[in-house]
Amino acid sequence: MDYDDYNEYSSIKDWAKITKTNQPIHASVATKKDGPFYCADTYEELIVRKCVDKRDHFAYKGRLSPVYSSNESKLHFECKHEICNALKEKYPQGKWDVERTIVGNKDRKLGKLVPDISGRINDKPIAIEIQVSSMTLPKIIKRVEGYYARGVSILWVVPLKEDLGNENFRPRQYERFLHSLYYGKIFYWQKGDGLNLTPVHFDSADRYIEEAHWFDEDGSERTEGGYYKTYQTIFKPNYAENVDLSKFISHEREEFVPDNENKTIPKCLIFKDKIEVWWKDKNNDTLTKA
Questions:
Q1: Coil, strand or helix: which one is 284?
Q2: Has this prediction a pTM greater than 0.85?
Q3: What total of structural domains would you count in the chain?
Q4: Burial 53-69 (b: 16+ CB within 10 A, else e)
Q5: Distance of CA 208 to the CA centre of its chain
Q6: In terms of CB atoms within 10 Å, which end of the chain has fewer, N or C?
Q7: 3-state helix/strand/coil string of 91-155
Q8: Residue 10 confidence (pLDDT) above 70
Q9: Does residue 224 sit within a domain?
Q10: What is the DSSP secondary structure assignment for residue 29, as one 8-state letter?
C-alpha cells in the first residue's frame, strides 16, 4: 500500500445534515442560522464557512488533542532531554543519547536514522521517537520499518502541552496509527513526567440523531432519526494508570490490517508495556487485534 494515498475523511465538505431536521443542505445555501450541522459519514459536528477566495464549504469542529506543533522546537527539545536524562540516571551503562545518527547501509538499502533518543536496556537496543504534528504517516512507517531491519525496538511518545481531558476528541491520523501499533493504546507525556507515560485507549463514542419529520417536494412524508450512531473518527479517552517506560519490553509485532481502516501495521519491533487491557469497548476491537 502507498501511504501517501492514505484516504482519511476530508476536512472540507460540500454537504452536511441539519441537526434539528436531519435534512441535507449544501454549503452554498447554508447559513449559520440553519445550524447546527453534522456529517452524514462520521456524525461529527460541522460548521459552515463562507469564503471569498474558494468555494463555500463545511469543516469539522471536533476538538483535537493539544500536541506540540512543528514550530514548538523548545518544547520538543525539553521533552527529549528530560526523558533521556532520566534514562541515563536509571541505566548509566545504556549509552543513552539524543539524536545519535544510525548510519545507512547501501548494500542493505537502509537509509540513515536519527532517533530522538536511543540507548540500551538489558543490552537490547531501544529507540524512542517524540512525535510532533509535522511528522507524516509515510515517515512514521519508514522509520518503523528501518528500525525493524536493524533489530531496534521502537517506542513512540506523544507529548502534550496540557491535559487531554475527558471529553470526546478527534485523534489525528498518526495518533490512530500509533494507537493500533501498540495494541489499542497510545502513550502521552507532559513536561515533568520524566519516564512516566499516560496510556490512553480510544473508546468509541456515540451521538444521538434527533427524530424529525418532514415532507418532500413530491408530498411524501419522511421520518429520520430517533437513535444513536457511533462516531467514525471521534473517540472518548479512556485512561490507565501511568506507566514507567523503562519497564517496557521488546516485542515483535506481526503485520496487521485493522478492520475498516485503510492502513497496514507493518511487521516491526516495538517497545511494549506490560499492563493488562483495562477497557471494555467491543465497537473498537478492530484497533487492538494481534
A1: helix
A2: no
A3: 2
A4: eeeebbebebeebbbbe
A5: 24
A6: C
A7: CCCCCCEECCCECCECCCCECCECCCEEEEECCEEEEEEECCCCCCHHHHHHHHHHHHHCCCEEE
A8: no
A9: no
A10: T
